[in-house]
From TrEMBL:
The organism of origin for this protein: Teichococcus coralli
Taxonomic classification: Bacteria, Pseudomonadati, Pseudomonadota, Alphaproteobacteria, Acetobacterales
Protein name: Extracellular solute-binding protein
Claim: Signal is one of the keywords in the record: yes
InterPro entries per record: SBP (IPR006059)
CDD domains per record: PBP2_polyamine_RpCGA009
One Pfam family this sequence matches: SBP_bac_8
Signal sequence range: 1-21
Biological processes, Gene Ontology terms: thiamine transport
Length: 348
């Protein structure tokens, strides 16, 4: 009897082995290219794990700013390995125009968003609202009896010489800075010369570093190397949550609208998984996480936030409508020329 039971158990084991092996082999891989820093931390710890579990997939994360990720898409053209990309809204419009984004297939997910968050007729979806403004170390400002910043003109203040950091032109924050300096000096996206002149003559003496890495920017604030920076509301919020005495404002001339956006990459190895992950990123549950932990306002109309969290983010169409919008058509048409000029005249 014992021999018979052992034989039966062995047979069941042999029968189960291929099934277990098949389950292990069935796990798919999805490559996601998105921001580093505090955004990456939220993705890795709270957003990716439940998606992996629900879909039996391994998500590989490629951290980089929008310019980095867009360059990866261009380098892989015709042989895409990235399944999903997260970019700032400006570079995302570039990605759409270059044919890198699939049409969104989950119409319910798309229809749940505010219309402004549907980009390129549904080629990409906005995942979070924020704005570019001025961040400063409140503790250092108080210790030195410095007035808190209120205007984009504060980038020119003599008492902040070599104490400011601004992301480079490769970063959306840097583009916003250039355009705003043009606007407050009589120019615009279509007349950018006043912006370059102000950056070169008035702002440059105050800039310690043109730093696009969010991690390095955080380090410079924490070490006291810089006292003020042009940064995003979500980045500032992350440092506030970490206990840093960070002040942040939309300057009186206006904060610049900044939307993070995502798309499933055309020609990627796992298009169905990519589409699922895009829908996952704009779900009310995930957007609520990013609102609390990263400081981005929800683009999904069904996202519910506590009053405490809602008071710290862009929440609802009324608040979004008050932000300054950029002319991305003009910016993207001239960005290569602006980049060369920035490297030649500003960040030398």
């Amino acid at each position: 009897m014992r021999k018979a039971l052992l034989a039966a158990a062995s047979l069941l084991g042999l029968m189960a082995a291929p099934q277990l092996a098949g389950t292990a082999l069935a796990q798919q891989r999805l490559v996601v290219a998105a921001y580093g820093g505090s955004y990456e931390k939220v993705m890795r710890e709270q957003v990716i794990p439940p998606f992996e579990k629900a879909n039996n997939v391994q998500v590989d994360y490629l951290a980089g700013n929008s310019t980095d990720s867009l360059a990866k898409l261009q380098a892989q053209k015709g042989n895409q390995q990235i399944g999903v990309v997260v970019l700032d809204d400006g570079p995302m419009y570039q990605a759409i125009s270059l044919g890198f984004c699939q049409q969104v297939t989950d119409k319910a997910a798309q229809d749940a968003l505010y219309p402004i968050a549907v980009l390129g007729g549904g080629k990409a979806l906005g995942t979070g609202f924020g704005y570019t403004g001025l961040a400063w170390n409140e503790k250092l400002f108080k210790e030195r009896n410095l007035p808190a910043p209120t205007s984009w003109k504060d980038l020119e203040r003599a008492d902040l010489e070599q104490r400011i950091s601004i992301p480079g032109i490769d970063n959306t924050y840097g583009v916003h800075t250039l355009v705003m300096m043009a606007r407050i000096n009589g120019g615009s996206e279509k007349n950018i010369d006043p912006g370059f002149r102000a950056m070169r003559q008035k702002v440059n003496p105050n800039v310690l570093a043109y730093e696009s890495s969010p991690g390095k920017m955080s380090e410079m604030f924490q070490s006291g190397e810089i006292w003020m920076a042009v940064w995003g509301s979500s980045r500032a919020r992350a440092m506030q949550l970490a206990g840093f005495p960070m002040g942040f404002i939309a300057p009186k001339e206006g904060g610049v609208a900044l939307m993070t956006a995502t798309c499933a990459v055309e020609g990627s190895p796992s298009p169905d998984l990519a589409q699922k992950f895009v829908a996952h990123l704009v779900s009310p549950e995930v957007e609520a996480i990013f609102s609390k932990e990263y400081g981005s306002g929800p683009t999904n109309k069904n996202t519910k936030l506590s009053p405490e969290v809602a008071s710290t983010v862009i929440y609802g169409e009324d608040q979004v409508s008050k932000l300054i919008a950029m002319d991305w058509e003009t910016i993207n048409a001239n960005r290569m020329d602006w980049t060369r000029r920035w490297q030649r005249e500003v960040e030398r």
